[in-house]
Amino acid sequence: MNTPSLSLQDRRLSLILLFAATLFTSATLMFSLQPMFGKLILPKLGGTPAVWNTCMVFYQSILFLGYMYAHFLSTRQDTRRQLQIHAAVLFISLLILPVALPDNLSPPTETNPTLWLLGTLFLAIGLPFFVVSATAPLLQKWFAQVGHHTSHDPYYLYAASNAGSLLALLSYPFVIEPNIGLASQQIAWSGGYAALCLMIAGCGWSLWKNKPRTDASAQEDILLSPELDNKTRLHWLVLAFVPSSLLLGLTNFISTDIASVPLLWIIPLTLYLLSFIIVFSKWNLKTHPIMTALQPVILLPFIAYSFINPAILPYWLDLVLHSTAFFLAIMVCHGELARLRPHTRHLTDFYLIMSFAGMLGGMFNTFVAPFVFNAVYEYPIMIIAALLLRPGLDISTGYRWTLQAVFPAIVIACGLIIYLTVDDLPQYLDTIGTGLILLAGLTYAFKNQPLSLALLAGTLIFFTQGLHGLVSNTIFQDRTFFGVLSVRENVLLDEQNRPEKYHELFHGTTKHGAQRLAAHLETVPLTYYSRPGPMGQLFKSYDEQNGEWVVGAVGLGAGALACYAKDNQQWTFYEIDPLVVEIAENPDYFTYLKRCARNLTHNIGDARLSLAEEPDHKFDLLIMDAFSSDAVPTHLLTREALDLYFEKLKPNGILAFHITNRHLALKKVLADHAKQMQLAALIQEFKTDGSIPLVTATDWVVMAKDEKILNPLIASRLGSWEKMPLYFGMRPWTDDFTNIISIWK
């Protein structure tokens, strides 16, 4: 890239600060709007991780439109027309402030809500998000024309933009969310957006005042800059597509297979933004070779332990391993992108292709993968693709390409022979696992052959995924907007030491129910709902009173709770995922509903929206058992939610809350509500000695308006019910305010 003549150089630091501060502010607003609106919309759709992924697709799509607008505006219009058009767009966007959700939102209950969610986001924040999306490429293009001595390479300003993104993303869960309610956040964001519009106007004035140079030097730069060919564009596209897909794939994988904790969703996005900051800085020349060398080194423990034998790792170590492998993969891809960045003449083309690839990656994960795969397979596929994109891939010579594929082909053939000829493969699990780990180590020898490395990694992951499915005895698995559901068949030894089959229902890696298949045991509720446990104790304590109870249960699972139903009781199950209902009603998987259900109905949709439509004072007992994998959706835990539950309960009604959780102390939230609302509340953290098969340790809270209502439970002396502990310094959870960090175990 040529540098403009010294006579035309502007060395003012204030010009850099103005453009950098505007880009920083724009990115900060963009990445604080994302979690804020994700939190606003999450309650409408049950708190599922797919909400965040769908929001990401929306953000990526609007980002692409913003980049396209910046590209055409800066390449098809002269300076005066650019400033006039963008000023009009800014003015129109200010008219819709403050940002807010449309009134009377009602998501579909029978169909996939993805399109509904995208439409809602478009109406609520489409135009302001479009403006902040267009800011980065447009202002960098303007800066390239103002005649500053660094105008020939404005890409370093991209680091300021990503620094703002990173600051906003990390500030939200640790600073903004714990201290500012959603309503105040919306007002503050709207004020910040108005300030951004003024800063953009200042940058526009600088462009107008400095007059883009049109001298011979500028024309020479344009003539010397090479034309873009389709091969270069395609290379940029795949280098940006794979990290984008990996981002959502890892997010889904973390939520499904490691821990369904919303706080963890920001980790992949933080690493993603950090990679852009590093590669578009002066450090990339030094860091890129290091990252390229480290990627296959980390590949060994990553595949060997996280895919081949994940059970031996604690969740936090598994998370670290996946995050490290993800970071190295995107650093290699983004490092190549930064290395191949073009002359400023093609700056907006470059960013347009990057944003288009990001949008395609998000669409692949959100619209294609869930309909093609019955689990999160897009994640390992993109790990393999990232290895293919390492520097050094050469497919121009057919002979060399074939040679690199020979050894992986031999490994695949040997694996298929073993799979097809060896009976009872699980019996040789340790031997096979050792062989796969040794093979993972062998992949390092192919670090300079991207095709061989990728094919070997793909072979390893393919066989380990198949082996896991075989060992887990999965008889059904499918994927919906709300997650991956699977039914597994296993064997236990009964009281006479005879083998007996049973079925388990899993959402992600969290068990949501189980049933023994012996005829005399089919109606015995198990896991969190066992008769020795809190639920069994509750129904037994009120056995003489509950003959005609009206019962509501939020969350169906395998349907075990239905086996507490009596002939004259009326039960309604509220379930957000239609597939859960299909599984529970299918006698090939579970027969609880078939054997136990009497006066029972289903209501599909979000619990709060469904309960709001029920008559007041309808229920004698309301059971809250809603989980997304291991997490209770936070909107079911707020003060407004508790008010709704007690509106629907009779004056002497009981609220039972399932709060078993590996990561969050949910009892703190309910204890604070009980204190603030002056409710009677008891808790039991039930433990099991393992003497009864499939009875699980579980935590339950029961609440009522008067402690006399709970006296039968205490008088029964069943279990160890205790009064809720007091927690000081808790800020009550409301629809406007929740704080995950305050209850982290």
From TrEMBL:
Alphabetically ordered keywords of this record: Membrane, Polyamine biosynthesis, Transmembrane, Transmembrane helix
Keyword Heme: no
GO BP terms: polyamine biosynthetic process
Database matches in SUPFAM superfamilies: MFS general substrate transporter (SSF103473), S-adenosyl-L-methionine-dependent methyltransferases (SSF53335)
Transmembrane segments: 12-31, 51-70, 82-101, 113-134, 155-175, 187-208, 234-255, 261-281, 293-313, 319-338, 350-369, 375-393, 405-422, 428-446, 453-471
Endoplasmic reticulum in keyword set: no
InterPro entries: MFS_trans_sf, SAM-dependent_MTases_sf
Listed NCBIfam families: MFS_SpdSyn
Protein name: Spermidine synthase
Organism: Methylotuvimicrobium alcaliphilum (strain DSM 19304 / NCIMB 14124 / VKM B-2133 / 20Z) (Methylomicrobium alcaliphilum)
High-level lineage: Bacteria, Pseudomonadati, Pseudomonadota, Gammaproteobacteria, Methylococcales
